[in-house]
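Workshop exercise sheet. Pairs work together: one partner reads the sequence aloud, the other fills in the structure field after running the prediction. Swap roles for the next sheet.
Pair: D.N. / O.F.
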Amino acid sequence: MNVADLFRAFLSLGLPVAALSWVLFSWIFSSGEIGRSEKRAAIKKQVKKLRSLDGLRGKTGRKLVFDKWVKSGTGFYGLAGLWTLVVIEAGELLEFLTDPDRFASMDEAGIAAFILGIVVNQLTNVIQAMIWWSYWPADSLLVWVSVAYVSFWSGVELARRSKAQSVSEVLTRIRDKNTPKSE
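Structure field:
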């Protein structure tokens, strides 16, 4: 392990996992499904029971993220897998859109082969996300898993201790603190 691996793990996996866990658990704590005063063991137990969040009705974007997390297995493992799937999908989408040869090969192979290729690719991406630790650099596996785990619980603790429910609320609070008060 070197400092570069630790830094890369923190930026690529740790920071996003912390941010996602903060967002998800802010929603959960604000909904009242889990109390902010609960200890980690109780939080783990109650998260496993969550399958829906009534406070997200009518909030399609939030509900989509929450539902994907629940389907990924909830908790640390599910969130790390969900983030890994996002990274894989975003990379492949960018690669697809920037490679003109992909469109030419679609014409040659036919639409059925193209659609079958997409389905198979999605399946392999989901499997890769399920075994998310194998996607990230294997030479420092313990570092990557540890950074992700600590980041997940840091996000949970931040959500538990903070009253903010959204990123925009946090940004507003920061702006308010940095704005000089008029006399």
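Discussion prompt: Residues 3-171 form one domain. What would you look at next?
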